[in-house]
Amino acid sequence: TQLLEQSPQFLSIQEGENLTVYCNSSSVFSSLQWYRQEPGEGPVLLVTVVTGGEVKKLKRLTFQFGDARKDSSLHITAAQPGDTGLYLCAETTGTASKLTFGTGTRLQVTL
Amino acid sequence: ETGVTQSPTHLIKTRGQQVTLRCSSQSGHNTVSWYQQALGQGPQFIFQYYREEENGRGNFPPRFSGLQFPNYSSELNVNALELDDSALYLCASSWAGTAYGYTFGSGTRLTVV
Questions:
Q1: Which chain B residue has the Cα nearest residue A87?
Q2: Strands A4-7, B53-57: parallel, antiparallel or unpaired by DSSP?
Q3: Which of A25, A9, A6 is nearest to A92 (CA)?
Q4: Minimal C-alpha gap between A43 and chain B (Å)
Q5: What distance in Å separates the CA atoms of residue B69 and residue B75, rounded to the nearest whole number?
Q6: B38-94 pLDDT tens trace
Q7: Hey, are the CB atoms on A42 and B101 less than 8 Å from each other?
Q8: Which among A58, A93, B55, B104 has most CB atoms closer than 10 A?
Q9: What's the pLDDT tens digit per position in A36-74?
Q10: Taking Cα atoms as reference points, which of B67, B82, B95, B96 lies closest to residue B18?
Q11: What is the distance in angstroms between the Cα of A24 and the nearest Cα belonging to chain B?
């Protein structure tokens, strides 16, 4: 069973700061998804990355997929309180019928 | 376009009881997957239903069972509840038996006492 480790586990920053969270695996990802989950809600898909070295941008969020497809990062520029939540990376299995989620990074952005 | 709807939102059950959770999939989706999310953890895959058949199962005991109906809605049943079953149960719908393009519901918070 592939293990996805995310770091850091917790992050508390002030509005306007930049941050990066990481997702690492012992094996090669087939594809990787990033989700944000707010309290009392289900995860919401932010992005899917498929190709090694791929970089995708979503407003102030930048997602990178490692060249070897064993790691990924999410960088947030000028964080806002609305970015607060649990950030989860998830890998689709070879059959693509399920997701294996990482341990999550809980982000708190304060004014 | 309607999203994924789960019911009930919260539930308290006693150890040993049985529970049924319900999920209505997003319009146009024919696949439903169930996940268990313990406090402070990422969701864990329970099973997936595609065209009314189980299409993959995670590492959960047989007392976790499910159904999918012709309208693609789904139920998750848990028998002989244990304290460790306390968690947020998430339903996600998608298309064609894959995990791509998941739309998650808001979940059912189950507490077993």
A1: B42
A2: unpaired
A3: A25
A4: 6
A5: 9
A6: 998 999 999 999 989 998 899 999 999 999 999 999 999 999 999 999 999 999 998
A7: no
A8: B104
A9: 999 889 999 999 998 899 999 999 999 999 999 899 999
A10: B82
A11: 14
